[in-house]
Amino acid sequence: MLQREILHVQLVGLHAAAAVAGRPELASEPFVIAHSTPGARVMDVSPLAHARGIRIGSAVWEVRAMLGQVTAIAPDLQAYTTRRADAIDVMLRYTPQLQPLGNDQVFLDVTGSLRMCGGLDALLERLRADLVEEIGILPAVGIAPNPLLARIANAVGSPMGINHLPCQPTREGLANLPVELLWVVETR
User: Fold this and answer.
1) pTM of the predicted model, to two decimals?
2) In angstroms, rounded to a whole number, what is the distance separating the alpha carbons of residues 81 and 61?
């Protein structure tokens, strides 16, 4: 039996990519996506801001204390929505079995696409290269035999990398993972 390969793709940097698409001069400077209200938090970061240690969720005042004057761009939801649709179009080239989750996550079942793409490694390389070239983002990708485990793989892995589940998907293998990773477990 063929093992399913499910990808959890985190569209890291999509707000920043939308800002650069509208204002190409931003590509050469560190900037953050944040509202201008007091106590605002960073919604997204440009690659140059990320390289300087700025992370999503930081307070804008903390970012300015670290870097001095940093450009804060208000989120453009229309541009973001367009960029997200473009990213989904790229992913649909690799499989029609795609399920968005929230605004910046997508699950892809690529099991049936592996042979056509030359295997999992080749598919991942091409998918990430297409998203970098066409959308301007380098997504984080978690890989596992089901969506829950793929999201866990992404949560415990590198924030900009390709992350395989760090243990066997068995009761014993999962027992040592933090319980907060079980984000979809409900009781009824």
Assistant:
1) 0.82
2) 27
Decide if 154 contacts 106 (C-beta within 8 A): no
3-state helix, strand, coil in the chain (%, to 5): 45, 15, 40
| CA dist list (Å): 116 to 36, 112, 121, 126 | 47, 8, 12, 12
Residues shown for the chain: 188
Enter the tokens of residue 55: 């992370």
Taking only the tens place, the pLDDT of each residue in 76-91 is: 999 999 999 999 999 9
Nearest by Cα to 108 from 132, 126, 82: 126
- Strand 105-109 and strand 98-101: the pairing is antiparallel
**Percentage of the chain surpassing pLDDT 90?**
46
Q: How far apart are the first and last CA of the chain?
A: 33
Number of Cβ atoms within 10 Å of the Cβ of 179: 6
- Cα–Cα distances in Å, from 5 out to 119, 146, 177? 11, 7, 21
Bridging pattern class, strands 140-144 and 44-45: unpaired
How many Cβ atoms are within 10 Å of 43's Cβ, its own excluded? 18
